[in-house]
User: Which sequence fits this backbone?
């Protein structure tokens, strides 16, 4: 999941961004409304965490532009104004959710994850395949009942591949979905992460390399059965 955090208070912006990164989300940052719009027009973000009281281009106008331009991102508006009238105005601008400062990080994370699930076709919170269970709500993974100690990047890569449901994702696709926009990651970073992930997943292999194209979850489970559907436990 890709998130854009827009907040002019640098300390708060970095605190939110680092927290979301620790929870395996790909996060970019912007300090004002114009920078935010430029990033939104160039990138593909699932969720926009938007401070309402931005300098220069106000957060309200950013939200209006997101709606006018039909940008496919969900908007979580942050503001110090918490009256009912303020919340109604914010939602009336096109925001999908509204959170008043100060807030608990855990609540912000829960709202971001909930909005992210609304930007793509609905899938259950637990994704399963060949004995692998990926719990996207609890950010945990196991295979054949054994818990997997995955890094945040390994978890995010595995989630992206499972959500693709057998479709091939190129290295560029994975970089776009998992790594931050401003970091000079290369396809080698993807290879290294996948190598470590495969070692942790064990046998039989679950991730296939498609020569010249990219990577995908194995299209048939061991024993010749078709893909297992993702479903809740």
Assistant:
């Amino acid at each position: 999941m890709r998130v854009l955090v827009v907040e002019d208070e640098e300390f708060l912006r970095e605190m939110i961004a680092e927290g979301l990164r620790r929870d395996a989300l790909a996060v970019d940052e912007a300090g004002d409304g114009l920078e935010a719009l430029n990033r939104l027009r160039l990138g593909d973000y699932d969720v926009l965490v938007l401070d309402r009281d931005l300098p220069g281009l106000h957060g309200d106008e950013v939200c209006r532009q997101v709606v006018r331009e039909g940008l496919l991102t969900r908007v979580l508006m942050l503001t110090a104004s918490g009256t009912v009238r303020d919340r109604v105005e914010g939602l009336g601008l096109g925001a999908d959710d509204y959170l008043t400062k100060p807030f608990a990080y855990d609540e912000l994370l829960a709202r971001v994850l909930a909005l992210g699930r609304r930007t793509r076709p609905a899938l259950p919170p637990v994704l399963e395949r060949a004995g692998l269970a990926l719990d996207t709500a609890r950010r945990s993974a196991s295979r054949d009942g054994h818990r997997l100690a995955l890094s945040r990047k390994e978890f995010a890569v595995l989630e992206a591949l499972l959500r693709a449901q057998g479709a091939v994702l190129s290295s560029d696709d994975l970089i776009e979905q998992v790594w931050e926009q401003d970091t000079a990651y290369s396809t080698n970073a993807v290879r290294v992460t996948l190598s470590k992930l495969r070692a942790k997943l064990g046998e039989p292999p679950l991730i296939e390399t498609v020569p010249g194209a990219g990577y995908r979850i194995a299209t048939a489970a061991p024993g010749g059965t078709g893909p297992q559907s993702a479903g809740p436990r």
Observations:
- Confidence is low (pLDDT under 50) at residues 221-233.
